[in-house]
Structures are given as structure tokens and as C-alpha cells.
Amino acid sequence: MRKKKRARIKIIIVAALALLLLLCAVFAGVLAPHDPSAPNAAVIRIAPCAEYPLGTDNLGRCVLSRVLYGGRTTIAATFLLVFISFAVGTLIGILCGYYGGIVDKLLMRVADVLLAFPQMVIAIAVAGILNGGMTGAMISMGVTMWVSFARLARSHTFALKNEAYIQAAVFAGKSDLYILLFHIFPNLLAPVLTQALTQIGTTMIGLSGLSFLGLGVIPPTPEWGAMIAEARAYIQIAPWTIMGPAAAVIITIILFNYLGDAVMDYREV
Amino acid sequence: MIVKILKKLASLIVILLILSFLVFGLMYLAPGDPAERKLSEQGIAINKETLEAERAKMGLDRPFLVRYGEWLSGIIRGDFGASYKDDMPVGPKLAAGLKNTFILAFSSLLLALIVAFPLSVISAFRKNGVIDYIVRLLSFIGNSLPNFLISILLMYFLCIKLNLFPVIAKGNVQGLLLPVFSLSIPMSGRFIRQMRAEILDQLKEDYVTGMQGRGVKQRYIVMNVLRNSIGHIFTIIALQIGGLMGGSVVIETIFRWPGIGKLVMDSITARDYPVILGFVIVIGVIYVVINQLSDILNHILDPRTSL
Questions:
Q1: What is the pTM of this model?
Q2: What's the ipTM?
Q3: Rounded Cα distance, B290 and B307, in Å
Q4: Are A250 and B280 a contacting pair at CB < 8 A?
Q5: What topology is assigned to A2-36+59-268 in CATH?
């Protein structure tokens, strides 16, 4: 019991920190001291100072403002992608697990094919061919991301389907929709949501990696991966242009990975 | 057993066929006309005649399924088609890149294993000890760092601050070190986490309790546990090869390592579709074959596992 309590406190602290980070991104407009995309020739590559706490980049843009606005892009894209994969994957998984049949067989075969390939390799090829900015990058990762959710939801639905209370609901004349929505879905939500939580860090690594390669966000929109790629040329003379977004990426990913681990531990205790 | 392996091979071929169809279809639907792009790059005036002639020359005017069929039969014969950029055959380009990527990937894998395997064994057998705590912390951080970030931080601190390495890899051992570090740091993190969990799972088994109860020496217990986890550890390694392939695209681009990953990034910029397609197929074949081999090896080591 004490172990469980300690795990819960850990989750609350980490979740509060993660929430704080999300709020920073949401209120970037209020927090940012400068316009993130306005170039200023008078202040090119200034080291961190009172006016520009994280310095300025090669176009004289405020790095702190760009990191804050960049967080908006990176975090919003990550959450949207994880949510869509979660929704689509869970829906497919529940339907496949509950009804089975030829559609289930077909979709699980497709899932096998997608799982049989390295995700980042597919993402790079697809994003490269689509050439469609952040949306293209999200599609390229979403192609394979729904699979893990579908598999998990399917196996849980499969197990739940034969529980006595589901059988009872069937005999009581409840519709399939009612059973799926009010009996199956709530019971598999916890494991699938945990899976979603653990995917946030990986997704962020993937998306910022694609942006870093120039396959994600289109400049001058601020995004952490793209900022690091841009600043790479000036690493010798203006290292602060890299350190700002680098710190942001590291802190965010560590925080969300830790939250995922903490929730996993909590569920296991 | 042989029948089972043949069956696996058959399903492998089906997987590759479906993937090749999906990627080819995507390329077909992709925006932009490669013929138009090629002409404008060569500085030839674009009008209806030159465009149609070029499209016919590149084989773009024929129906989708015909093109797919021809491309596929070419691949089976080892012919990956001609690059859109310079009309050179794609196969030798991929082969040259693959050789360099192999050097990079193999060295990184080796380094990651040398670091991760002993650490995960110590960490699992001394669970909740000081070493376990440090190893877990480091592997957690390693696992959370994107490899492009690691490579840039390494570059900054080792090349610029400490002046230990050249910034651009020259293809020699010294140039290989930074890309290898960048790839193996996150990979070691993942290896340690997974291998430690696997060994801990083994330690929960009854036979371990039995051995401990009979007072068997610790080193024999370690030997037995490792003998029983080795199959799973092979699977863990095989699964990481995929992440390694994706990561090497990023790392090769950063360090200008002339591997298949840098080739594909250059081809994406040039919209050179045959090279991108060839890349997906080659990496796909390698990855799928390695994973099937690990399954077979697993089965040989431990006949209880299904094939």
C-alpha cells in the first residue's frame, strides 16, 4: 500500500511539471518577450543578456521566444498525432477484436506488414515523398503509429468479449454499440491510455528528428528540431542558439518519458 | 523445421510485396512531375513536346500497374532502375552507400552491446543497489535523447570546446568515432532497459529460487539465467536494428558519412524517387531477414519457442 501511495505522489509531481510545461507552450504569446519570427538586423547573434535571456539567432530573432513558440508547434503536433493514432488504433482494435472475421484478418495482416518495418525508415521515405511540412511529417509517422494501439485494444477486447457480464449484456438485448461503448471501451481505456502516454516521448523524438532533417515544419515557423538544424551552422560562434532548443527538447522528452514510466510502475504495483 | 522456415520465408515475401506496392503507390500519388523537374534542372525549355518526350523516356506515361510490374521484376533481377537525377543505375549507388552504412551501424551496435550487456547484467543482479540506480538513471537519459541532439552536443563539446576530433568525418577511424557514439548512446539506453527487464523476468522463475534454496553458487545462477535469457536478448538486438537504420539516416546526414542514409536524404531533396524506393526495399529486406534469422536462432537455442 505504501508503495502504491509513493508511486501516486510521484505521478502527481511529474504530471504537475508536465502540465506547467504545456502551459508555457499554450501561453507562449504572453510569456515570449519578443516576436518569434521578426528578424532584427541590429541584434544578430547576441549572447544571452537581460533583454534576450537566451540570446538571438543569425537573423536577430529572440531565441527564448522561438523556444516558447516552438514548444507550441512541437507539443501540439505530438499530442495531436498521439491522439489521432490512439483514436484510430483503438477503434480499429475494438472492432477487429469484437467482430473478428475477414476484415480483422486483413487489417491484422496490414499491421504485421507495418510492424515488420523500421518506423523511422518508413517515416523518412513517406515524409520525403509527401514533402508536405508538419502535416506530411505527422502522416508519415501516423502510418505506423496506430498499429500498436490497434493490437493492444484488439487483444483486450478479445479477452473481455468472453467475460460473463458481456454475455449478460448480450442476453439482456443490449445493442453492440452499447456494449462496445459502455462495457468494452471503459475497460480497455487504462492500458491503452498508458500506451499513449509512453508514446509521447518517442513521437516527439521522431517529429523533431524529421523537422531537423528538413522533412517537417517549413521555416520560419519555430520548431525545436528545425531550430537546432538552422543553428548548427553557427555552433562555433553562437552556441546559445542551439543550447536553448536543445535544453527544451531534452527536458520535455525526459519529463514525458518519466511520466510514462511512473504510470507504468503504478499500474504494476 | 525446414518446412516451418520455408513457411516463414513465404510470409516474408508477402510482407515485402505489400510494402513495395504501398511505397510505389505513394510515389505515384506524390505531388510534382519528375520529368518536369528534371528538364528544368537541365535548363531545357519546358513545353508540351519536350515534356512528353522526357516522360516517355523515363517511362512515366504508362499505366500504374505496368510501371509497378516492371519496377518489381527489375528489383527481382537486381536492377533498381535509373536515377532521375543523373540516369545512373540506382543499384550500385545503394550498394556503395550500404557498405559505409554497414561499417557505421555494425560498429555502433558492437559498442552499444559492449556497454549495455555487462551493465544490464550487473544492474539486474544487484537490483535496487547503487550501481543499479546509476545505470537506470543513465539508461533512462540515454533513451530520452534524440540522436541528432546527441551528435550536435558531442560535436560542440568534443570538437569545438576540447578540439579532440575533426568536425567533418573523413572516412577514417577518427571520423567514425563521433557518429558511432551518437548512434550507440541512445541504443545502449534502450538495450539496458530491455535486457535488464528480461533478466529480472528470468530471476522471478522458480528454478532460480530453487537454486538459491539449494545454496548454489551465485556465478552458476548467473550462468543459468543468462543461458535462458539469451534467446530473448537476440530478439531485443534484432528489433533495435530498425531504430539503428532510421537513426543512421540522421547521423550520416549530420556527419556527411557517405552511407545509404545520406544518399536517401540527398535523393529526397532532388526528388529522386527510384533511389528512395530502392532504399526502402533494401532496408526492409535487411531488417525483415535479420528478424527472421533471430527467430530461427531463438528456436534453435530454445526449441520451446514457436517459430
A1: 0.86
A2: 0.82
A3: 14
A4: no
A5: MetI-like fold (1.10.3720)
